[in-house]
Amino acid sequence: MLILENQGIEECSPGASKSLLGIELLHSMERRVGRERLMRKIKILSWMCLFIIGSHLSFAFALRHLKTGDSVPNFAIRTIDGNHISLDERKKKITVLVFWKQNDDKSCNMLTDLSRINEEFQGKGVTFLAINGDRASDRQIRELALSKKLTCLFAGDPDLTTYSRLGIVVLPTTLIIGPDGKLAFIQDLYSRNFFTQTIAYIRFLLGEITQAQLDAELDPGRSVKVSPARIKADRYVNLGRLLLDIKEKEKAREALEKAVEADPTFPEPHLLLAGICLEDKEVRKAGTELEQALKLNPCPKEGRLLQGLTYAGQGEDALAIAVLQELVENNPEPPPEAYYEIGKIYEKQKKTSEALAAYGMALKLLLAQ
After folding, report:
1. Which of 126, 258, 325, 352 is a good FRET partner for 138, with 20 to 30 A between their CA atoms?
2. Tens of pLDDT along 186-210?
3. For residues 194 and 218, what is the distance between their CA atoms, to the nearest angstrom?
4. Which CATH superfamily includes the segment(s) 56-222?
5. Are residues 58 and 188 in contact, defined by beta-carbon separation less than 8 angstroms?
């Protein structure tokens, strides 16, 4: 018999043992999140100043001695399939290089997008090459490519010769090299615009779009005026997120409050403040922030999740279940946290089978990420 401590479930059928093991794993994963975030503290602090000033400045630091418009020095590298590729062989063609590392969400997202872009430009003379930068073996790279169904070429750089030659500083980094052998585009880290921007640059280099069309793709905000107040608020939000990642909660709260002060119509700082208040058991204040966020943007996924958590914190279990169930049923990619919170409510109510089902869905979604 397995016992869930302090949860009110003391007995279950033998057939539920595996599910309960999953629940214990889920709880342990929840406790581990704080430790994993602290491990990233030094890395995040090193980049914090860049986010305060503005995200575009970080491009200048992606490469040590190359900039857009420079000729890229030749290099040769062996792919994990045993073939050799050199940059000189790719002259008069477009080459897209991604430098990445293992166990990194930004690298994984960049590689996934790169594979989608690769499929879109099949047969157009564009080479997509992903070069590992943390000494992964060919076997490890091959396993990742298979598990994620990645279609681009992969290569290892165990002695970091290519990294040193090109002066790569930040991982992940993407370089697009034009037919003239010059560096056309640098993308460090990973942004939500990576997919569209990379496609736009490749199409421009292929002659499929004009410079004006490229500019419009790269900066759609030119046609939609963004107020100085929103820009200022967005920077405070970025800072607040970084501070939350390194467990500087009170400083994060101050930054987010400044974001609200800069632009009261921006819903995101209200959402983040609601999350902080909820964590600090300030349920009433969390509800106020959440109400304001949902008034500004009625249907964000994060807002509905926090609304369910707020109802649960107030002891309104029925309302919490209703909001969270609606969230998971109406989203093609429901957040695992919603199922987890549903499971906790059912577990508290000693509804064992419902709790197991919700925990099972949460675990399945977590393992799929």
Report:
1. 126
2. 887 777 788 888 999 999 999 988 8
3. 10
4. Glutaredoxin (3.40.30.10)
5. yes
